[in-house]
What does this fold into?
Amino acid sequence: HEQHFAQRGRFVVLARGWATRRVRGGAHAARWCAGDMRSASRTRSSPSRSLSYKAVAVLWWFGTACLVPIEAKLPMKFKFRPPFGFSKMDKQLSMLGKADFAVKEYDTVLSANALKLKEDEIEKAAEVFIKAAEIRTTVDREARQFGACGLKNLAANDDNRQAMWADMKVRNALLNCATLDPEETADEETINCALEAFASLSLDPVNRGPMWFNPRVRMILVGRAKTPVRFYDARKHALAALRNMAVHKLVAKLMWLDIWGARRAFIQGARLGDSEQEYKVTTNALEGLANLAMVKCQRTAMWANQNLKATIVKAIAFTLPLCVQKNEIRAAGLGLLANLGMDKSNANDIWPVSNTPIKFWIWISSLPLSEIDLQPYLDKKYVIGLTPAEKKAMETATSAADDADSICTSVTQKALECMNGLAFTSSVAMRMWKEPTKTVLLVWGERSGCDDCRLWALYTVTSMASNEDMRLDLWNDRAGPMFDRVSAAESECEEVRFLGYEGLWEIAGSKDTQRLMWNSTNTQKTIVVGTSFKETNPSAIRSVAFGVLWRLTTNPTIANDTWQNVSVRKNVIRASRMTGSENILTRQFALGIMYEWSNPALFLGAEMYSDNPLKQTIFTVAVNTEPWMRTCQLQAVGTLRNWAIQLRIILWQDGEGARDILLRVANYNSRQHQRARALAMCALQELSQAHPNREPMWTNSRLVDTFNNGALDSDNARSQECALAGIVWLATLPSNAVSMWSTNGTREVILYTAGKCNPFHAQAQKLAVAALQTLAQTPENRKPMWFSRASFIVIRLANPSLFELISPIQHEIRARALAVLWTFALNDELRQRMFWDKFGAMWVIGIAAATECPLQSRARVYAYATYSRLAESARLRALMWYDPIIRVLVIEGSEWNPTFREESRAGAMATLWQFSFDPQLKKPMWACRGTRLSLISGAANGPTDKVQLYAIYSLRNLAEAVSNQVSMWNTPNLQTALIDAIDCTKTGCPPTLPDAFALSALQVLAYSSINQQSMWKTKDLVDQVLIVAARDCEDEFYDDSTCWHSRQYALAMLLLFSEAKENRRDMFQRPEVRGVLKSTCTAPWTENGEGVVGRTYVLETLQFLADEDTTADALWQNPAYRSSLVDECLVANSLLPKRMPVGQWRRETIGDDDTEILVPVLFVATQELPAGNQAVVKAGGRMYALGVLTTIAKRPDNQFSMWDEYTPVTRGIPSAVDNLVAACSIKNARFNDFRAIGCQGLANLAECATNKKPMWDDAEVRACMVRAGNEHPMYDMDEIQENQWRPDGGVLNDVREAGMRGLANLAACLGVTLAIWLDAGTARQALQLGTRITPTNEQDARTRENACRGFANLAQSEDNREAIWRNEEVRDGIMEAAKDTSCLNTGARKFCMQTLNELSENSQNQPTMWAGAEAIAVARRRRSGMSRRLSSSSTTVRLGQVSIARHNEDGGEAWARLAGFA
It folds into this structure.
């Protein structure tokens, strides 16, 4: 170290330890290893240990450091002695506060070559002066004077100063002369020469520190600076020396502390006297204070010194008489004010809002009088606070300078310099950019030439432009055009042009001015001129011009314009390829412009990538690892990163170009290239976001190794995060995810990073957990991940008790860990294992669900989402509900709390929704008060739709329990919540999901017959239902599946309301209901499945309404209803379909399982009905319409008129009877449902006595009835026939019953009885077979009863009695039915007895019948109480009791009851 510092000539302070006064005499010393400078300069080798050393004592007392050099010859190990004056200084230091001084290295180089005087010349000349100056006697005063004068002259040479100060003899000789008594007139000149020599020596930067730290020199100079006024020369030279030493920052700090009186000396000297001899003293003092003001930390304290402030005001003011010396004083005062004004707090005081003398003198001193008329400004507005003498001096000065450019060039320069210092404070700069200061700056800035005043004016405006709030004002107010003219003028000097471009650089830093600047033709021309490669364009100008262009291109629009400019583009590319250290800044700006061009928002990536010179430049710079190219490399790699955002596929496919460059940079290991590596890793991460790239990127081993190494590089956090993010993107491809988990390298990297609980790498840990979450999204990975170390890491991260959550990102890690558990819960097998892991997974989930910390809101969301996933398993629902902890957490989580996120409430509500599917939990859930209140509050118009949907759907599921329906509807809050959920329909708003869900829940509540009447009487509910049911979902405004669902549920509710007999008459009388019925039935058949179902609901509603006698009569007899409802609705919709569709459909499924809601995913709309099922639903609707016609035909008042309209002329035209006949006469087995309904309708019409004869005479009707009555099961039936003859709702049973009833009704006509009997092969056979039916159910009993009633009617004709009795098959059937005493045969036996009674009245039959004594005896017992009049007992089967046959594709038949939807 000694040799190194001796060769470099450095003055080094080694401060390696601090001690109190009790350690080695009170301080710890450090060594100055400079040695004897003459010896070092001569030998350039290490100085000997025996040479003299300078020790620098580092004293620490109350936190204050003070460097005191000591002249001594000390060995290497020395014992410290207090220096001269230590005790006095110690007392002064004890009164000081803490100082911010630091021991710094004196970076000054002493070179032996700087000494131009040879050794022999020094001995011949200098030694003579030294010996003369060392004379102490008074005899040789003149020799001493000449010796001091000679040393003064030698010190005036710059090359001698370092050597002279290093020579101890010279110092001692000068000190000997300077310490003489000034009262001796003969020695006064000697003292002045010695002090002037010290002033000259202090001009050398190397000497300033050692001179100040020399106690004798310091004491002499400070003392002489305080000498009386008459010794003005000595005072002048002493202040000059102190002024020069004050340039040293550490010395300046010590001077202002005024430990040795330097500050007082400066302030006293700065006070202006009356004599001209004191002017130079004042100038030196003010300049010294200006040097002290160069220390930033002292400016505020200096300006707060009132003595100093008064001195400055006096120094810069005009005073008489005017002279050159006073101008120097004003210049020095303005220089001091300029340094003090660089402090913001001082600047606002120096240049306040109001006019002050200081403000006025600064402005008046900066005026170019030859170009500005001063008189308008010399009024009371600006001239404030001046004394009469100052005003007179100002007027004298201005009047004497009419032909001059300024009062004094140095004063004007310092005034402009002062303005420049003040302009760094934004508030002051805004006040300065107003009249009259603005005019002064613009006039100076636009003058020709390259003088200092113009430069300082440009400096000032440039400083103002550094304030972002002023840039727009400056550009609009002549400053911008001024910079344009100055910059573009090639005739201007380089420094002026540079300042012009620097001003444009500052103004271009504001977004508000960038577009205005680029729209200016002059500015564009200026930039083109500055960025050109002409020989007259210096490199410094070119660099700052490219800097202006770079700043402008930060605006995307300007960047696009500059790219389209071919000349600008070529210059930028050329500048980016320049070499040499002098062009490095130009190259940086050019590459910065390319970076702005690559902005993804501009979409210029493809064009830039196709430009081969530009692309090759980027590639070359991106891999340049030279230290001075580091910034350029970052810009090039950043450009590649931007290209990667736009050209992800193209860059990855460029294996020899961009991909290779990025992989090379991403694998740099040195710390100097960490930022470049992070940018390259970020670019690769962008490439991984393209879906086509993910598979080839994962198969590229070089990329995988790069990502793995980057993910383990904890020293480069940004690179590590980008690598992990790239792994996350690659894992989104399922094939990659499976391979990634099975690959040890990447899997172990993810697990290692996720398992580290280092708060300094929390972001990387979060991405690692995100990678685990992404891998768990693949179903194949969930099970192996659960049985691996991943599950333990995830559970540990989700448990807050294992580590302290101190930052938001750690809360995010916990939330992501819980998200992984939520993903595991998607696997049904893992649900079971997670649930029984009570002290692992379920423990951390419960803690997260119970947390109330706002920072853990996302963790709470995923905890409740996991509960909902677990509840998807039917086997766990009851176990979770009866677990007291889980039940309490779920119920509390479903309650509204403003401090929690609504997603967590939605998760808790979704868990209750899953519980509500369990049939065993429906009743206890409704009985639980907490659950009930949570669901009702959530069903209200809540803050989010998800919570409301879950709550309403849960209520709907609970309403499926019959025991809950009545109590739920009778809960007022529930009624209000559900009705309010669909309240928005009144305003004409489009339907929402809560509308559909609320209507669905109300529909289920309407299943209860007790609720139906009460719900119909609820006016608000009915109004909402009718509004929704009347919607035209084909309208564009409502063209949404939600509208169809809402309307479907509303129509279903009308159907349920119509099931209650008490509601039917009121419903039919409401015009809104009839309007809904008509509009729904008359609308064209839609391909939308929901619309088809809605029409079927309406037609069934009409069937229920028609069961009311008054409604059935009104439908047929009221002309308005007949036209709108019967002809347009029922007749049109009861036509037979062209073919009976294949498939199976149950209405009960519509609205039950059509919606799937997942947490935290939003509601997923249902799919439309499959096309095959739509035809089935349409066929069901047509059957309901046909059933309504059958119901109308049941009323006696309608039967004649209905048949009367069916004439040979109208036959074949769609009408009520024609549709019935068509349905009854169909022979296709798939249409037997329609056939059954048609036969029932014809049987109803046959009840009218007037219709019997014409109906029998109609061959088609007769054939239909006879064929239906002859339907009987056989032994060799196929599968379809067996299905249709099944006893529990087989459709052929309905057909046979209707046919048998119709024949019995027709047989009641005397004109038809003989014809029926004579029709032995058909009609009579049907009745005969009917009497032989053995009833096993009520339907068979009714069929047999109708057959027996038919024979009773036939027996009324005397012509038939004998033939009936003599027919053995008929007689046996009647007798068999009469003997059957089962309860199901009561009706049939009654009519058999009546038949036998009629037959016994024939005299021909009596003998034969007597032979059957048992039969006669039975007949006699019943005859006395039996009426002779045969009554036609008609029975109408409601459509809801009719089955619809649907055939499967394999030929089999599936049956489902259409009725019973409620």
User: Anything to note?
Assistant: Residues 1-122, 400-407, 1142-1168, 1422-1462 have pLDDT under 50 and may be disordered. The beta strands are 28-32, 53-61, 64-72, 1443-1447, 1453-1457. Residues 1171-1192 form the longest helix (22 residues).
